[in-house]
Each structure stands twice: as structure tokens, then as C-alpha cells.
Amino acid sequence: MKVPESIKTVFAAIRRQVTGAPLMSWLFGVLVAVALEYVVGYPLARALGLPKVPALFGLTLMLKQPLLIPSALLYTTIIYVLPVGLIAKFSDVLGNAIAARLLKLPFVVTVMVHLGMLYLVFHLWTGVSDYRLVTLKFMLIAILLTLSLNLINGYMGEFSCSHPGFMALGAYTASMFTIGLFTDNRLLGEAVFHSPLLGYALFPLMLLIGGAVASFGALIIAIPSFKTRGDYLAIISLAFLFIVKSLIENLEFMGGPRGLSGQPDWATLPMVFSITVAGVWIMNNFVTSTMGKGLNAVRDDESAAEAMTVDTRAVKMRCFLFGAFWAGVAGGLYAHVIRYISPADFGLTKLAEILAMVYFGGLNSIWGSIVGAVGISALSEVLRPLQMLKWLCIPLLLILVMIYRPRGLVSFKEFNLRKMLSPRRTKV
Which of 33, 45, 385, 407 would you label with 321, given CA atoms 20 to 30 Å apart? Predict the structure, then answer.
């Protein structure tokens, strides 16, 4: 079917506008929109007959109460669409000039300015409701999990099923330190230190210890797995997942099957945001380094890589331990966001969720991991009112993606930060 010329013209105009406005303009537009909602969101929602400020751009509310669809659409248009679109349109020249000036400064300054604006957007957006805050934290943690598994399943070309196990090791290790040292707990006794400020300052160190324990667990898998080729990693890693889950269920000092609660509320938005940004930056440097090039060579043809003097076993083991480390860090954050963990949280359901994010977003791509994590997390929340039907819609979407985009939506796409922050040239 031929697309009408009028529709082509509209899409061409939108494309010119999107490519003409720099990231600085879009961030400023979104910042104005969330600030507007923060100030007048509640009065506007009441004036439009909405019971509350829409949580996820009105999508969840539309599914719950279809009669409120016109009001929710009008609210989203007034608060988000018009401010963002108008500011991006009329500030493209100024935004390009600012972007050009920023690039003359040290690149780290440019990055920090954009990250500061992005954090301010998140801070204002989540200030409207606690539900938004928790949802955003889980999305950021999902980005870490998805990207760390993409290192193994995408960049390395293997298939691992052990990520929930690594996540559990990091979650329980970090929780044992924070609860045992800084809180009074029935299982672990009285606190050793009574300074929450000290505990919050040491919290990143405890997450790193959790990641290190997860890496040690990965070493147990890697030593026998990478002596062979084929599907042995998938089998051994799945067995490791069940071993970790069963082990935790039988350790009473860790709560056993009842779980472990009482984690301090230290996974604040600044903490989760900072660790996620650091994780994405470090993993992007990893895949663009010489080690990352070796991973690509191993994925494409392991025999040829060996002939080119690549130590394939060492490369695979380092990547596997590195991915496990960040899964452990993500698990520690997850435990302190939800403030309760049990072995049931780290089973096959969690594995299916992480795998869906990886293959939905795209293999061998930092962008793909971000798109997959945010997309699946947002869909799960938006479709929550559908209850059981949600578990039909998401798998159906995944099937369609696998049919028409077998490698995911944004596969094999380079994460070029300098290009992303550069001024735009409008195509005439």
C-alpha cells in the first residue's frame, strides 16, 4: 500500500525538527514541562476531571478508566507535548550555539551539564508521586541488569542464564553488610555502628563488595564452562541459578525462604542515578576497548580469533566476571529499593524478564539495552490494569519483534556520546 504524500510530508517535517534541535534543547523542553507539572499539575488534573495527576503520561489511567481518555490526552498535551515541542522548535538555534560553546570546554564539563539537566528532570518528575520515584529507580536498575547481560549474550555471543543468581548474591551480600552493621535486626542482632550518615557514605562500597561476590560466583561457572564450546554455558549457568536459590533458602541466618527485610533506605534517586550512569559509562568503555574488540572477534568466529592470537578463554572469562559484577551491584540496589528480598525474587521469572529486555532492545548495543530495559519496564507498568492480559500482550509484542527484528529494535548501534551532544545541522 502506497503511503499518501501528505503523510510523508508531515513525517519529513517532524524528522527535520527532531534532527535540527540539539539534545540541549530537548532536555530544556522536558525540564520546563516537568517543572510546569510540578507547579500546576494537581490543579490542572482537577480542572480536567482527573482523580489525580497521571502517573505515566496518562497511559495507565486510560486503561483503567477509558472514559477519561480525552481528559488524560488533553492533560498530556498541555503539560508535555506543547511545551517540549515549542521549546525544541524555537530554541534550536540557541541550543546549537550553547552546544557548540560547551564542546569547546573539557568534554567532562559538557557531559556533567547534560547529566545535571537530566537528573533535575528526574527529580522534578518523581517529586509528584512516590509511585513515579519507585518506577524510575527500577528502570535504572533494569538498565544495569540488561546491559550487563548484553555483554555476555550480545557482545560475547554466548547464552547465560545465571544473571538472577548473580543478582541474588549481590543483593544478599550488600544487605548483610547494611543490616548487620547499621541496623538492629532480629536475625543479625544489634547494629555495630549507629551512624546512618556513615552507612550511606559506605553504601557504594557495600555494593562493590556485593558485585565482587557475584564475580566470584561467576568464576565457579566460568572455569568449567569456557574449557568447552557450544551450549554448555547455558546449562551450567542455569544449574548455578538453582543452586544459589536453593542455598539461600536453606541458610536461616539469611532469612531462609521467608526472606530478609529491614534494609536501610539508602537507595535514593541520586545514588541509583549516579551508579547507573557510572555503570553505563564503564561498560561502554569496556566494549569499545581492545577487550571489547576481542569479544566481537570471539563472537564472530572463535577459531579465527584464536588464529589472530586472541586468548579467547581469557577474554570470555573476563567479560563473564565483569557482567556478573554489575549484576551483583544491580542486585544490591534492588534490595535497598524494595527493602525486602526473598529467594523467590531471583528465579526463572526474573530470568525471563531480563532476557526479554536484552532481546527486545537489541544485541551488541548500549542503546539497545537502554531501550529494552526502559521499554519492557514501562510496558509492564502501563499494562498493569489489564492484569492477566498483560502477560499475553508483552509476549505477543516480543514475538513480533523477533519475527521482524530478530536482533532487537536497536542492535549493533554505537553509543557515541560526543556525537550525541554535538550541535545539529538541519537538513533542508
Answer: 407
